[in-house]
Amino acid sequence: MTDIAIAADTRDLFSKFDPLIAEREALLATGVRDPFSIVMDEVKSPTLAVIRGKETILLGTYNYMGMTFDPDVIAAGKKALDEFGAGTTGSRVLNGTYQGHAEVETALREFYGTSGAMVFSTGYQANLGVISTLAGKGDYVVLDADSHASIYDGCFLGDADIVRFRHNSVEDLDKRLGRLPPQALKLVVLEGVYSMLGDVAPLPAMIAAVRKHPNCMILVDEAHGMGFFGEHGRGVYEEQGVEADVDFVVGTFSKSVGTVGGFCVSNHPKFEILRLVCRPYVFTASLPPSVVATAATSIRKLMHAGDKRAHLWKNSRRLHQGLTDLGFTLGTKTPQSAIIAVILNDQAQAVAIWQTLLELGLYVNMARPPATPAGTFLLRCSLCADHSDEQVEQIIGMFAIAGKATGATG
Ligand code: PMP
Questions:
Q1: Least packed by Cβ within 10 Å: which of 140, 155, 190, 276?
Q2: 72 CA to centre of ligand 1 in angstroms
Q3: Distance between CA 18 and CA 82 in Å, rounded?
């Protein structure tokens, strides 16, 4: 730190951020709260927290199945903390594989019905690791233009050539694959649910398009599909009946599973070799024992969570209908997932509604470019199976007030 005044014209490596700093300062000067520095002072349940002394309904957590406070999950974490300590202090390939890491991989193999499962420290690292290790220089990664940052970063780390197709366009995917050299090796990366607008991929049609072209493997990111879609909660690829056609599924423990971590599952006979060659797996510390214990317990419970899935669908449909009736523009015309995105005109309007909702006692996620598609500003709502019917009605009531107060709805 230095207290020497920095001359206005001084250029250094931070200079490229000057436009963003100026934009933020201008926004905060209008007196709004900073949407990206919220502190949860207390968290009472998957759906309730205290923010600056106010009890607040949580509607932007991706805690779809409410597993963060499941008593069995918490008990498993406490037991592992007592028995195995606070952390592993080591890589999975050295001293960082404990009985709990093996156990959570067994739970994943059972949950997904696959022969292989590999756990990473986050879902970001799972995409980074798997994509960069599978697709290197001279290979192609063919991805949806709206793919998550971790998918793009996996391509950069591996130095593969990136080919983007238009979001959820089967025709564009087919066309772009058709232009690539037939002998080249390609990894096609799809997501079950796209997290910005909450829309679902038409996987059977996309996979049929891929299968017309030689030398393609398919990876589906089910970060937002796991727990909620399909009879066993495996994801959109299960719900849409294409399990046999997908080579790799990547997922996270930070949404439906309710803790932190990432994974990849596969039936490929050579899958295990990735453990030795995947840099984001090898060169980082493994998850703490308490985390893998909570994840394993949660995953096993999610196998039998049909009732929770049904309630989450009910909540998602009700909120979608309620916000549509109020006149908001949503990311999808019909409810497709537990993510319901409210599309707004600009940053000022988005922040105004976001802040009004917070003052009323409702937290939603704000998203802005470059994370959002087509330069949109979004209020992203994600429902939880633990939201009660009354809470969903309260949420709709708060949107009604905020929409009117800010002029966003009539
Ligand atoms: N993939 C997708 C589609 C995601 O939305 C996210 C998280 N937002 C991730 C991967 C990364 O997951 P994690 O939080 O475990 O790093």
A1: 276
A2: 25
A3: 48
* Domain 69-302 listed as CATH 3.40.640.10: yes
* pLDDT, tens digit, 9 for 90 and up, residues 150-193: 999 999 999 999 999 999 999 999 999 999 999 999 999 999 99
Whether pLDDT at 91 is above 60:
yes
124, 144, 249: residue to mutate for ligand 1 pocket, most atoms within 8 A of CB: 124
∠ CA 290-252-332, nearest 5°, is 140
CA 194 to ligand 1: nearest atom: 3
Residue 150 Cα: closest atom of ligand 1: 10
Beta bridge partners of 405: none
Q: What's the mean pLDDT in 223-238?
A: 96
What whole-number distance in Å separates Cα of residue 187 and Cα of residue 190?
10
Tokens describing residue 43:
């968290």
Architecture field, domain 24-58+306-406: Alpha-Beta Complex (3.90)
Pocket of ligand 1 contains residue 380 by CB under 6 Å? no
CA–centroid distance, 223 to ligand 1, in Å, is 6
User: Is 252 touching ligand 1 by the criterion CB < 6 Å?
Assistant: yes
